[in-house]
Design goal:
Radius of gyration: 18 Å
CATH class of one domain: Alpha Beta
Pfam family, one: Rhodanese
Shape: globular
Largest sheet: 5 strands, parallel
Protein name: Rhodanese-like domain-containing protein
Order of helices and strands: EEHEEHEH
CATH topology of one domain: Oxidized Rhodanese, domain 1
Structural class: alpha/beta
InterPro entries: GlpE_sulfurtransferase, Rhodanese-like_dom, Rhodanese-like_dom_sf
Number of helices: 3
Strand content: 5-15%
Length: about 140
C-alpha cells in the first residue's frame, strides 16, 4: 500500500529564517546602540550591569564581555547577585526572555531595561563578543 500524497504548506505564522525583535510596549526597552559596549564589574564608576538571561549552552557559545550570566529560571533565586543601585540592561537571544525578566525585576524594585533585539542584534551591531574555551564567539 502506498502512502497518499498530501498537499502541504508552511503555516503563515512560521518565521522562515527571518529574525524578528521581540518587544513589549509595557516594558522599558533600549536599542543595542544605547547600551555600553563594555562592562567592568570591578570599576565602581560603571554603574550599569548587563544581565544575560540565556541558557548555559547559549552563553558558552558567545556573550558580551563583562556581562553577568544568570539563566532566566534562576533569576528569582539569585537577585542577591544584582545591585539595586545599578541600571540593569537585560539581554537574551532575541527578547522574549529578557522582557519577562525585566517585568519581574522592575516589579521588585530594580531599575531594569530590556535590550531590544538581544544578542542577535548585539552581534549584528559588531559589539564585542567572548566565548568560553578556545572557540570563536558566535550567536546563533
Amino acid at each position: 500500500m502506498a502512502w497518499p500524497t498530501l498537499p502541504a504548506a508552511a503555516h503563515p505564522a512560521v518565521n522562515h529564517g527571518r529574525i524578528e525583535t521581540v518587544t513589549s510596549p509595557e516594558v522599558p526597552s533600549v536599542p543595542v546602540d544605547a547600551v555600553p559596549a563594555e562592562f567592568d564589574r570591578a570599576d565602581p564608576a560603571v554603574p550599569a550591569i548587563l544581565l544575560d538571561v540565556r541558557e548555559d549552552d547559549e552563553w558558552e557559545l558567545g556573550h558580551a564581555p563583562g556581562a553577568i550570566h544568570i539563566p532566566m529560571v534562576d533569576v528569582p533565586a539569585r537577585t542577591d547577585e544584582l545591585d539595586y543601585d545599578s541600571e540593569l540592561y537585560v539581554i537574551c537571544r532575541q527578547g522574549g526572555r529578557s522582557i519577562q525578566v525585566v517585568e519581574y525585576l522592575t516589579h521588585i524594585g530594580f531599575d531594569a531595561v530590556h535590550v531590544s533585539g538581544g544578542m542577535v542584534a548585539w552581534q549584528r551591531a559588531g559589539r564585542p563578543l567572548a566565548a568560553d574555551g578556545d572557540r570563536q564567539a558566535k550567536i546563533y
